[in-house]
Design goal:
single chain; alpha/beta; Rossmann fold; eight-stranded mixed sheet; 8 strands; 15% strand; globular; binds adenosine-5'-triphosphate; binds magnesium ion; ParA/MinD_ATPase; CobQ/CobB/MinD/ParA family nucleotide binding protein; P-loop_NTPase; ATP-binding
Length: 306
C-alpha cells in the first residue's frame, strides 16, 4: 500500500504524524518505507533521529538526484541502524524493516520535463510496493509539483497498485478551509486527479483527513484554564465541528485525530517507549492515536463509507 501524505498548508503535522505512523506499523512487524518528496524541505531524517540527514542527504543519491536522472538507484537508509537515538538503535524483536529514502540537501523544488519524471515516479512506486507492506510518501505542501506527479503516476492505467491519500490539517477555521480547498477546489486533488485520468468518485473514496494537534476541551490537563477560557474553547470546538461537516471534513471523512502532544510541541521526533515509559514525556493518548492511525490506514473497513 502506498499512502500519500499531503496538506494544503505547511506546518500541519504531516511529517511528524506520518513518520510516527510508519514507525508504529514497523513495530507491528510490517516492512515500511518513507519517501521524502517534500522536495523544497526534505527534513524527514531529523524526525527519525538521523542527525546526518537533518536537511536531507549529502550522498548525492537522494530523491532529487534520482528524479533528475543522476542515479538509477536512490539511497535507502535503514533507520534502525542509522538513527542517533538509542531507543531506535535497539530494534525491537519482531519489528519490520524501516527505511527512509531521503531527499538531497541543498536542492529545491524542481521542474523538468514531465515525461521522464513521471516514469521515474512510476518505477520507484512500483519498487516500493514490492519492498514494503506500507510506503508513506511525504509530499510538499499545497498544490505542488510533487502532488501532480504523484497523481499522474497513480492514474488507473499505470497499475502501480493500491494507493491512498491522507490530507493533514490542524483544528482551526483556516485549516479547515484550506484542507477542503486542497481536495475539492480548483487545481486540488480531485480537479487535478480527474484531469490526469482518475475517476473522481474512486479517487474521493481513497482520500481521508487527519486532524492534528487536537485539544479536547474536556481533557483533565486543561483544568488549569479559567472557566471563561474553557467555555470559549468549547464554543470554538462546536463551531469547528459544524464547519467541518459543512466542508465535507466531518467524521465520515476522518481517518484519525492526533491529540496535541507536549513532546511534538517542542520537538519533531518518533515517540518511542522511552518517551512514554522512560522519561514519561509523551502522552499515551498520542501514541495510541498514532497506533490506531497506522492500523486504520491499512484497514479496508476504516475506508468504507460510513
Ligand atoms: N499532535 C501534535 N501536537 C503538538 N505539536 C505537533 C503535533 N503534530 C505536529 N506538531 C508540531 O507542529 C510542527 C509542524 O509539524 P510538521 O513539521 O510535522 O508539519 P508539516 O506539515 O510536515 O510541515 P512542513 O510543511 O513544514 O513540512 C512541528 O513542530 C511538530 O512537532
Ligand atoms: Mg513536513
Amino acid at each position: 500500500m502506498i499512502v500519500f501524505a499531503t496538506s494544503d498548508k505547511g506546518g500541519t503535522g504531516r511529517s511528524v504524524t506520518s513518520c510516527n505512523l510508519v514507525y508504529q506499523a514497523a513495530l507491528r512487524g510490517l516492512n515500511v518505507g518513507y519517501l521524502d518528496w517534500d522536495f523544497g524541505s526534505p527534513t524527514a531524517g531529523a524526525i527519525f533521529g538521523v542527525d546526518s540527514l537533518n536537511r536531507g542527504t549529502r550522498s548525492g543519491r537522494g530523491q532529487h538526484a534520482y528524479f533528475l536522472g543522476q542515479v538509477l538507484e536512490p539511497e535507502t537508509v535503514d533507520i534502525w541502524a542509522a538513527s542517533d537515538r538509542n531507543s531506535l538503535r535497539h530494534r525491537p524483536p519482531g519489528s519490520g524493516r524501516m527505511e527512509l529514502l531521503p531527499g538531497d540537501e541543498g536542492q529545491g523544488e524542481f521542474r523538468v520535463g514531465e515525461g521522464p519524471i513521471v516514469q521515474r515516479a512510476l518505477d520507484i512506486l512500483r519498487w516500493a510496493q514490492n519492498e514494503y507492506d506500507l510506503t508513506v510518501v511525504d509530499l510538499s505542501a499545497g498544490r505542488s509539483y510533487a502532488l501532480r506527479m504523484a497523481l499522474t503516476a497513480t492514474r488507473p492505467d499505470e497499475n502501480v497498485g493500491r494507493s491512498r491519500w491522507l490530507v493533514f490539517h490542524r483544528w482551526t477555521m483556516q485549516h479547515l478551509t484550506a484542507a477542503h480547498g486542497l481536495v475539492h477546489g480548483a487545481q486540488g486533488l480531485l480537479d487535478t486527479g480527474t484531469k490526469v485520468g482518475h475517476d473522481r468518485e474512486d479517487l474521493l473514496d481513497r482520500i481521508r483527513f487527519v486532524r492534528t494537534a487536537i485539544i479536547d476541551p474536556n481533557a483533565p490537563d486543561l483544568r488549569g484554564l479559567r472557566t471563561s477560557q474553557l467555555s470559549w474553547l468549547s464554543e470554538r470546538n462546536a463551531e469547528l465541528h459544524l464547519r467541518a461537516r459543512e466542508l465535507e471534513l466531518g467524521a465520515r471523512w476522518v481517518l484519525g485525530s492526533i491529540p496535541v502532544d507536549p513532546v511534538f510541541q517542542w520537538h519533531e521526533q518518533l515517540l518511542t517507549s522511552s518517551d512514554l515509559y522512560g522519561r514519561e514525556t509523551a502522552n499515551k493518548v498520542t501514541v495510541d492515536a498514532l497506533h490506531d492511525l497506522s492500523l486504520a490506514v491499512l484497514d479496508d473497513d476504516a475506508w468504507e463509507p460510513r
